[in-house]
Write a structure and sequence with these properties.
Helix content: over 70%
Number of helices: 29
Structural class: mainly alpha
Radius of gyration: 27 Å
CATH architecture of the domain at 348-432: Alpha Horseshoe
Strand content: under 5%
CATH superfamily of the domain at 348-432: Tetratricopeptide repeat domain
Distance between the termini: 32 Å
Length: about 450
């Protein structure tokens, strides 16, 4: 077992991937997961096996699956062991297993995870103490708010947030654009709201927005969402049709719809689409409104003017809207209306979606015939063709196609095998974690050589 391999697996979702593991769990292949963890050093298998064994009450077996990873120095296994111990009711043992030392208390991640475990154990005061030194990070401040919800600590939380929110209010005027935590005002309003002090939250955040005393757009959106949740249509009208219209009109329209004024919501959106210099930002909320009313054809027409855009293109959204409505032939027709220039520019996306839609419509032979007209080295083509063959019951042909393509990932060969009850064969046929990591390094080196020393890495 190699830490570098485990870090690569965790970072890239390599080896036996979380998706494959989920399918194995769904099919009850826990013993195979245990075997892969033990013999192949597969972390995602070990993690899932430990959780499944823990749920089944096999605590010692769960711990034994994790032990080799802990001995290798894999920190995530230590936290997984703590979860197993906690679920078994061995709470103090779980806490002691991951209690951070002085160096660990300086780690945001370590304190975050330990605070979550403390909160689960009902030791909320300790959790707050652990988090407090790191409240200048947005995600830690959010964690504080999440962990304390409904726990009778709202006044304490407001006191902790208040100085950060005050500094956020002044940061823009002082041109401190990188200020952290930039979400302090949003969270302060959230805590006020959950204590029942909604009017105070609206006054405070509304004054900040009106005066421009905020750093990031998320604060503006938090205010719009706050108003929408409580049906404050008039305040949203002022906000959503004023100078912040681009970011907030959609919230005003949804509040109107929620208040039973869908016609007015539609009229407002159409008015801004017709009059605005950059109208396309208002098309998506209108498409969503029309689709909720079952007016699919009209929703398509709203999106149509954007279909050939590079930016603000709603074509993919409309295709998925038609798919979700069961109108596969309409989605295919819309694809086939695209110009030759569009198809050439978006060749991989266009082709894979056309094959997918033909397959979903049951037109498998047509999908395969279309696939044969495409360049054989087109990205994703092999997987699309194999998926179609699998749906037709031609599993061996699909597997042969996948195995013959050196660009296909090992997990993409394994997945159909698992789906068809050949899980052990799928795992045996996969390269080891070390081999996959080495292959990844070779690909990275080749890509770097192709770029040249002065080219950017993207």
């Amino acid at each position: 077992m190699n830490i570098d391999d485990l870090e690569w697996q965790s970072r890239t979702l390599g080896g036996i991937t979380p998706r494959l593991v989920a399918i194995l769990v769904e099919r009850g292949e826990v013993e195979l997961l245990i075997q892969a963890a033990s013999e192949r050093g597969e972390w995602f298998c070990a993690q899932a096996a430990a959780r499944e064994l823990s749920r089944a009450g096999e605590v010692e077996r769960a711990l034994s699956v994790l032990e080799p990873f802990i001995e290798a120095g894999w920190n995530r296994a230590r936290w997984e062991r703590a979860e197993v111990l906690f679920e078994a009711g061995r709470v103090q043992q779980a806490l002691d297993a991951v209690r951070p030392d002085e160096e660990g208390l300086a780690s945001e991640w370590g304190c975050h995870d330990f605070a979550e475990l403390l909160a689960k154990a009902g030791r909320l005061d300790e959790a707050i103490t652990v988090l407090t030194p790191h409240l200048d990070r947005e995600w830690i401040l959010s964690t504080l708010v999440e962990l304390t919800e409904g726990q009778g600590r709202d006044e304490q939380v407001l006191e902790l947030i208040a100085p950060h929110a005050e500094r956020a209010r002044s940061a823009r005027g002082e041109e401190r654009w990188g200020f952290h935590p930039s979400n302090a005002q949003d969270l302060e309003a959230q805590v006020l709201e959950r204590t029942g002090r909604f009017d105070e939250a609206v006054r405070m955040l509304g004054a900040d927005i009106a005066a421009g005393h905020f750093i990031v757009q998320n604060t503006l959106i938090a205010y719009a969402e706050l108003l929408q949740r409580h049906g404050r249509v008039e305040e949203l009208r002022v906000l959503g049709t004023g100078e912040r219209v681009g970011e907030t009109l959609a919230y005003y329209a949804r509040a109107l719809e929620d208040a039973g004024q869908a016609g007015e919501a539609e009229a407002v959106l159409r008015r801004f689409i017709a009059a605005a210099e950059y109208p396309d930002r208002f098309r998506r909320p209108l498409i969503e409104l029309l689709s909720r009313q079952g007016r699919i054809e009209e929703a398509v027409e709203v999106g149509r003017p954007t279909f050939d855009y590079h930016d603000a293109c709603l074509f993919e959204s409309v295709i998925h809207l038609l798919y979700e409505a069961g109108r596969l032939d309409d989605a295919l027709a819309l694809l086939d209306e695209r110009s030759a220039e569009f198809v050439e520019e978006h060749s991989s996306w266009f082709s894979s979606n056309r094959i997918w839609l033909l397959g979903e419509a049951g037109r498998h032979e047509e999908a395969l015939a279309y696939a044969e007209t495409l360049p054989p080295d087109m990205y994703g083509l092999t997987v699309s063709k194999a998926g179609t063959l699998e749906k037709m019951g031609r599993v061996e042909e699909a597997l042969a196609l996948l195995r013959a393509d050196t660009e296909v990932r090992p997990s993409e060969v394994a997945e159909p095998l698992i789906r068809h009850g050949r899980a052990a064969e799928a795992i045996v046929g996969m390269p080891s974690l070390t081999e996959q990591h080495a292959a990844s390094r070779r690909r990275d080196a080749a890509a770097s050589a192709d770029r040249g020393p002065n080219d950017p890495p993207f």
